[in-house]
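re: ur question from earlier - yeah i can do the single chain one, its not a big deal. heres the input i used so u can compare w yours
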Amino acid sequence: MKSYEVNFDGLVGPTHNYGGLSYGNVASQSNSQQSSNPKEAALQGLAKMKALMEMGFQQGVLAPQERPDVAALRRLGFSGTDAQVIERAAKEAMPLLVASCSASSMWVANAATVSPSADTADGRVHFTAANLNCKYHRSIEHPTTSRVLGAMFANQQNFAHHAALPAVAQFGDEGAANHTRFCREYGEAGVEFFVFGRSAFDNRFPAPQKYPARQTLEASQAVARLHGLRDEGVVYAQQNPNVIDQGVFHNDVIAVGNGEVLFYHEDAFLDTESMLAELQSKLAKVGGNFQSVCVPRSAVTVDDAVRSYLFNSQLLSRPDGSMLLIVPQECQANERVWAYLQSLTSSGGLIREVKVFDLKQSMQNGGGPACLRLRVALNETELAAVNPGVIMTPPLYGSLTAWVEKHYRDRLSETDLADPQLLLECRTALDELTQILKLGAVYPFQIN
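and the output i got, formated as tokens:
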């Protein structure tokens, strides 16, 4: 039976804005308060989805969240009609209104952690929504995320869904941005690789001094237990706290893996050699041949990696066994990064081709190609059980492009977030989107 890695890309929401909400994310903070272009952002994301579909890769879509999140503002004491809630929040606590309007759910690498059926004890694909409790504006996402994933992967014979972990610092969980999987074939048993920034209960692990480490070891271990993973099929690794302090807030900013290959920066991890040896040993036990591509700091600095998002790329397997790297335009603009990529692809190694995409709107807010997609390994039976409305096709691309053109603004500033009309525009757009994607009622305004 054939198996596939399906990339479900986040559709950028109508309130895409540069709120500068993510401390530790250099791009997010440096572009704070600039005007954004939600329409351009959504169309850039859709163009990437279309291109991958046309290259022969399985591609899906993950819907955005309802924003502004009026219910979240009500929980914080704002009352009255929806318009009054927004107006009062804008007057009394603008930072809370900005947080409630965040479109960060577009970065669905943080939506959940996914384990394929070949790895799990019950033979189902398992999803655990990430609690994202390190940042308030993202901590409010997981209830809707769970409903959307449930509508996409509804067949209980094939799919199992878990609620987010307890929303406390000890179980900080950032989803697939700190998780990848190595395997010979997507439908075969593999090794799941969990990267953490700190331990909540064991002070033997060093912690960063400047920026927070968002993923805990304990959260990663809990997800592995929930998914029924075998000890011999899991490797835990600690992110280098020094690179976290340089703006590497998730592992997918400094490393990316796919198939049997890990592409990583020399300074990405602690105890790198023992980690690589464990990955090689465990993957060999299930018939795999682990390989790694290390980018030396002499060629690309950590600062280069953060500014270009070289590692926040998509590493894709082609039919001939070689790898394709999908990178943002910022890699081409960085002289050292581009020189490295040219030498990499001309060397006859594992990564043979680089394709560049314009994702400027997302990049300015701190998310590149890898942030925009959630990877789900599925066999043919499981793929057939996925809600067909969310699988990208040429007609769906056309429908979504027309939908964006109809509903999205082409300029949004912080002051625009206080306009109650924006909420109505968002709800009208999302109500239509759930019909296009055949999701049913997944948003609070549709349920309450």
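The domain at 3-67+102-447 is CATH 3.75.10.20 (L-arginine/glycine Amidinotransferase; Chain A). not sure if urs matches, ping me
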